[in-house]
Amino acid sequence: MRILVIGLGDIARKAYLPVLSRRGDLDIHLTTRNEVVLDEVGREFRIVNRHVSVADALSATSFDAAFVHAATPAHGELVRLLIDRSIPTFVDKPLADTLPETEALVTLAVARATPLVLGFNRRFAPDYVALRTVGANLIVMEKHRHRQPDLPRRVVFDDFIHVVDTLLSLAPAPICRRTIETHVVDDMLHSITLTLAGNGFTAIGMMHRNSGLDEERLDVIGDGARHSVWNLAERVEAQGTQSVQRRADWISVGRQRGFEAMCDDFLIAVRERRLVDTAAILATHAICEAVVHHAETCIRGEIAVGADCRNGGKQQFI
Q: Helix or strand or coil: residue 254?
């Protein structure tokens, strides 16, 4: 299978190429405009097929699939180019940093009957996957950053989107109520609290960008038990007493964090020409757009200080 990897930044080098380059069934082609990086990454992963532009790569040969690891503003143009050629495409989250652009790209993929997959690795992380069947009714996910307040759209679509998507993947029933709280200081987003609720469950996602530590924690609670995962590396079970299970020494980070299974699933979909759940992509991006709207409304001063800054209701949201 011939695949094109577009963009050779940190996430491609840390998460994807260590997984893809070990597979003997892939003929990998690398693409970036930075020739120094192109040669460096090619040597590091022993990949000989290198291109200085996507256009050069597409004119040189045909591809069975593509992985897009370019910066978010470039996603729209690249995804359109690939989908127009009916090339199954995997994209790092987000698909786009606005809901209208996301909807347009999903519509194109559906029209061309071409697989389009987003890089939500937590859907495949084994410790997170195991929590889908524990039958709890309270889900709490925290993902914090140390001294990193930033513009709302960047925070939400580049980082908090993982919290949103994980809550949706673990929700045991449709979401019928949603509450959003944001804290903005000098136009910078400092914290988010998102509550999603449905029949018999509540899911809460929190992020603080001016926290004391970079950390992630997922808790699934109910039926006399608390199941927790810390930093995607430690599993903690509490049922009267507490036990801790850490990642085994010989389990790779790529497997523990879900990148191996996620890449496998995409490549199987490519071989089978299996379409994916684009509704899930839209649901995640729609909630992110709502969070950004809440934060930007606070910036514009349309929500009075001390007012109830919530977006709720009983209608079906996703």
A: helix
Cα atoms in the Cβ-side hemisphere of radius 13 Å centred on 237: 9
Planar angle of CA 192, 301, 190, nearest 5 degrees: 25
Distance from C-alpha of 133 to C-alpha of 136, rounded to nearest angstrom: 8
Residue at token pair 């049922």: 239
Structure tokens at 169: 């993947």
Contact (Cβ atoms closer than 8 angstroms) between residue 251 and residue 127: no
Please give the model's pTM, rounded to 2 decimal places.
Answer: 0.91
Separation of CA 316 from chain center: 23
- Helix residue ranges, H only, the chain: 10-11, 17-20, 35-44, 54-60, 75-84, 99-111, 126-129, 152-155, 161-170, 253-256, 259-272, 278-299
Asked if 107 and 82 count as a contact pair (C-beta separation under 8 A), the reply is no
- Residue that has been written with the tokens 């729209």 in this structure: 76
pLDDT tens digits, one per residue of 69-92: 999 999 999 999 999 999 999 999
How distant, in Å, are the alpha carbons of 8, 68, 77, 78, 86 from that of 81?
A: 19, 11, 6, 5, 9
Per-residue pLDDT at 236: 92
Contact 204, 193 (CB under 8 A): yes
